[in-house]
Predict the structure.
Amino acid sequence: MVRRALALPSGRIAAGILAAIALLAILGPFLAPYDPLAGGAEILAGPSGAHWLGTDYLGRDVFSRLLDGSRVSVLGSVQVSLVALIAGVIPGILSVYLGPAFEWVTLRLADTLIALPFLVFAVAVTALLGNGIPQAMFTVGIMISPLFFRVSRAATLSVARSPYVEAALISGASIGWVVRKHVWVKVLPPVAVALANTAGVGFVVVSSLTFLGIGVQPPAPTWGGVLAADLGYLSFRPWAPLVPTALIMATVWACNLLADVIRDVSGPTFLLRRGRNVHSQSA
Amino acid sequence: MRRTKWAALAVGLSLLTGCAGGAAGASDEVPTLRWAVTLPAHWDPVVSGSGAQFRILSLTYASLTEINEKGEAVPSLAESWDYNDKGDQVTFHLRKGLKFSDGEPVNAAAIKAYLERAKTQKDSALFGDLTSIKSVTANDLDVVVDLTQTDYQIPLLLGERVAQIPSPKAAQDPAALDKNPVGAGPFVVTENVPGSHVHLTKNPDYWDAANIKIEKVELLSAPDTATIVSGVQTGVYDLAGLAPNQVKAAEAAKLDVVIQPGYNASNISINVNKAPFDNPKVVDAVRYATNRQEFVDKATFGLAAPTDQPFPDTYLAYDKETANRWPYDVTRAKSLIAESGLTPEQLKVDLVIPNQQTAAEIIQSQLAAIGITVNIKVDPNWATPFFAKDLALSIYGTTGRESPVQTLTAHFGPDGPLNLSTPYEPEGFEAAVKVARETPLDSPDYQKNLRAATRAGLDSRAIVFTYSLPNLFVKSPKVSDFAPIPGQLHWTGLTVAS
């Protein structure tokens, strides 16, 4: 699937952008030319050779703050995705096999979580458990997990009653073996699409929360925090919000593009088209 | 701040869709002032206290006295007053024929009921300001105030911040009064939607109604500071408070930037009863580590002036003798930290604030430079632990008081609401304040005695003053100029062109 995705131009673009963002998250703090927390006398300065993106309201180098802040933003998104994946996929598959009681409980729980606004809930949880990205992102991950629950449950249901699966079970195969051998390959493509989408959602959520001052303590930089600070000084640096906005938009767009690509390359239309091409080439 | 950002989004959308523009475009049938404010959480002056919200409450409540441009007490509900020879009794003579908006008469009994409630009500935010008042006697229109000590500050004290008088009938139910104000001020509330808006119309029974030129006031919940200027520019608001970082935008939009004089002073509030500030060397280090000019430059864009006292350096009580007593000296601060014997782990402290503030980050970086690690914690319910004196470190910005002695006792007194280190008070302060209190305001010694009290107060380790920023407002050019009353907005004579 990865090879098929990267064979498409849109797949290569999405992967390229996300790889660049990942590199920023890993190397950003080391690449920053200045201490992102150190203020200077020159506040709200425009771009210059010394400060490529100017300085903020405390005289801190904005470029360094964006580089340093990329790690928090990316890790937050990754945390949301992983929590949602684990909390959604495992119960989603098990709900088909562990009997009606487990199925009823997990379905009602998923319905309940879907009904709650996750951003507001994340704000409430940080108010209760303290202002930090891990607790906020864990909450958002749990709130998003019904998406994975439903996707994985639907894919599991589609194969659980297939003749070959029933034959395997009658032949004495364990449920674990059936899941590993037959179910997982059906679940993986839609889960991969959901994962890419969730990464984008997670990024928006991290940016939104840090924009509102939730999740990080000053003076730690984040993309959302830099954007929020810039909005207070539009009369001094009207162009300044464009840079963090572009970073956030590019990342979310790349995640969504990747989701589209995965959906396309794993869908029956793509495989059929690919099959026809192969057939015509061999004819 | 968080809530205002959500509100900013809503206002932005309304501006885009033209809803607000429609309202602004409609010509007012009567002169109406649209004022963007943080709507008061409390409308009962006793509960609201003497903070900045008194300016909003002054729309609907008249006070016993007012101040003029020089900061001197002048008549309001009381048309005159006189002291006995000893200075421990003052009699206020009320105007005749006044009534509250519910029809109750404005008389001495109403004033007595208010002052007694302010001294005794459980949730009163004013009882600490009224310790000089022993008893009140009502004689028709004469209010006789007996004092616990000689105190010539009372006419200044009983102004807009401490003595906005509500109807005694309405005050029989303080909870209802706290939601629906009933006063004898220039306007009467006609509609109050909490969190949204408050509408007021002119009170024809106000004692100076002839000089109130505005017929209606609409208080609107203020959006994020970044959208205030566009709100005034598009006519959604006529008047709003202005953050220093928006002054340039307001000037570029050709709006009127009002720099109203005041007694404001911001400070770093320290609790000497809590570690690490129970070590005097750490407090001294903070004093030397404070670079006031950085606050002026970065938090106020040069609009403020540095101050190391609880008022600007132009104020009557500012003590020039002790000016710059703790100059900015990082080297000395570092050596004091070394002398304190505390480890880096012991030098970690939470700075608790109600919302994100540039000043907090400046304090964080200045204290980091001397080895104190400050963790900024934003607590929307900050007021509760602050006034309960439960915090180790915070910041506060006073809007001042009409009575300079009240300013001093609020900051340095053992029960001062702004003294985070209660019951701590600097040695000699009480005696110095007593002398200032006992000095008639027209005495040649008044200023000297006030300054001596300031000097005694500045020994306090509980507070480090940083800068004094005047009150900033932005207004539409169709609103006339405000009288330059220090710290206050007076409605008499103010006009709004249609």
In short: Chain A touches chain B at residues 37-39, 41, 43, 57-59, 123, 131, 211-214, 217-219, 228, 231-236 (CB under 8 Å). The two ends of chain A are 26 Å apart (CA to CA).
